[in-house]
Amino acid sequence: MSHAAGVYAAQHDGDLRFDRDTEAGFWAIECHDVHKSFGPTKILDGLNVGFPDGMISVLLGPSGTGKSVLVKHLMGLMFPDQGDVIVKGRSVPKMRQSELLEMRTNFGVCFQDGALLGSMTIFDNVAFPLRQHTDLTEAEVAEVVHHRLSQVGLSAAAQRRPNELSGGMRKRAGFARALVLEPQVMLFDEPDSGLDPIRTALLCELIQEIHAEQGGAYVVITHNIAAARRIGEYLAVLWKGQTVQSGEASDMFASENLFVRQFLAGEATGPLGMD
Ligand SMILES: Nc1ncnc2c1ncn2[C@@H]1O[C@H](COP(=O)(O)OP(=O)(O)O)[C@@H](O)[C@H]1O
Ligand SMILES: [Mg+2]
Questions:
Q1: Largest alpha-carbon pair distance within the chain?
Q2: What domain range includes position 130?
Q3: How confident is the model at residue 266 (pLDDT cuts 50, 70, 90)?
């Protein structure tokens, strides 16, 4: 990509990464000047952000700043009033319904509570996308489901129902389900919400392990700076519907930008107030 790569590269002070950023296929996801309002309220205000392929990106920003709205745009569940969203080189707003459905099978999404179906066992929840979208036999489905459940440490819970599991187990079950179609893009919307620091650290480790094994573009939305530090290879900080700064984690944690510094340090003083 050309135009937007220049935008991101400018944030990198035109150093080495400029060359890499312009490589074809560097970005799995690109948002170009995305605007979105609900009634009179502007939520995304000319958002430019990209998430590289093959890396774990972390999207950070205060509550209510439009992170979940952005996720819906990536999946074609919402469309921009203006601007473009490109996933794996294809414009999402320009897709037909059939193309959107197909694209979504390349997305694994983990929502806060795992979003499991309460009437089904964990096995059936994880099997659901396979039964819906593939021609696998039941024996093949069982093989994939058992593999994924063992990856997330839930082999023993296959026959239990979501309400019999802890919050952390439900998140891991949601992760197993999101993985069964071997998605090219994984989105985690605040996977750490409601987890204590130890369980958050374990979930981060799991995300890292599975990413190392499967590859693809991972985008993790969180307010948790410790989690961002642990797993983020690429960071984007959003505020008021725009990217304040994005870049490789080491550069972001060394940022001179006052807002980024305040946000990543979790400090009370700085441009980010209570408004
Ligand atoms: N479908 C919708 N209709 C109207 N307002 C919405 C809708 N979805 C989100 N919003 C508003 O957009 C803002 C950003 O929401 P969200 O993306 O959920 O923030 P966060 O960054 O915490 O994930 C919030 O003020 C929310 O109320
Ligand atoms: Mg949100």
A1: 58
A2: 115-168
A3: confident
